[in-house]
Request: fold
Amino acid sequence: MTGAGIGPVTARVRQAARPAARVLRKIGRWRQVREAVDAIRGARGVRLVLVFHRVAERDVPTYEIVPTVPVELFRQQLDVFGELAELVPVDSIMREPVDPQRPFQLALTFDDDLGAHVTHALPILRALGLHATFFLSGRAIHRLGGYWFERLEALLAERGPAATADVLDLPGVPPLELALRCEADRDRLALIERHAPPVEVSLGEAGIRALRDAGMTVGFHTLHHPVLPPLDDAELRGALATGRDELERVVHEPLRYFAYPHGKTDPRTVAFTQDAGFSAAWTTQPRIVRSMDVPYLLGRWEPRPVPVDVLLIRLGDVVRRVG
Reply:
C-alpha cells in the first residue's frame, strides 16, 4: 500500500535536505567522507533496503539489545540520504527492473511492534513525504506483552548485568552476548519470561492503523518472533501463519512481505516462506538488491545510531563492494 504522492524523492525532501547539503560540505573536507560521498553519488543502478528499529527521543533502555537511533540523528540520516540518493518505496524496488542509469536508490523499513514507529518515526516520514514498510507482529491484537528482547532489557535494568547473567546461568556474559545466547534457547527464553518485570507492547491497534492510514506498507514479522531455522516443520508453518490473518484484518489488506525474525533463515525456511504465500522476504544481511536475487533471500542494511560521517563511510564501503 502506497500513499498518494509518495514515491521517489520529492520537492519536500529536497527542500528539507538543504541542511544536509551544509553538513556534507562541512564533513566532506575529510578524505574518507569525500570518497564515500563520491562513491554513493556515482552508484548507478544500485538499490539498497535499510532497516531501522527504535527511533526515540527519550526513555532509551539502560541496557540496549535493539539499537535506538535518536530522533534528531534519524532526521539527519534521512536528510543526507535524500541529498545523495532516491528514497523510494520497497514496492518500487520489487516491481521495477534495474535501470543502470538511475541514481542510487534506498528504501526504508522498520521492524517490530514499537510505539516509537508512530510517535517519532512517522511524523518525520510524513514531513519529508517518504514511504516506509513496517514489519509488524500484531502482538497487541492478541494481548501479548513486549518482545523477549524488551523483557531482557527490563531484566537487565532491574537487576544489572551480573545478576541477570546469573539468572540465565551464563555468569560473566555481557548483555549483548546474553541476547545472542538466548535468542534461540527456549529454556533461557522461559527464564527471561519468568524473571523479567512485565513489559507492555508499545504499538497497539490504533498505532498500526495510524501507519496504514499514513500510506505506509505493513509486512509480517511473526507473532512470537522466534528464530525460524531450528523449528520443526509444524512449528515453522505455525510461526509463518499465526497472527497473520488478524493483522491483515486490522490493516485491511494482505501482508505480502515478510521479514525473518532475527534476520535468520535457511533453505528450508525460505521454501516454507514461499509456500506461505509471501511475495518477498528479507534477512538482515547487508546486501544490495540485484535483479538475480531470490526474492526470499533479500538483504537489508542497518544504519545504526552512528554520526553522519561514520554512516557515510560505512555506506560508501557497501557501495564500493558492489564494484
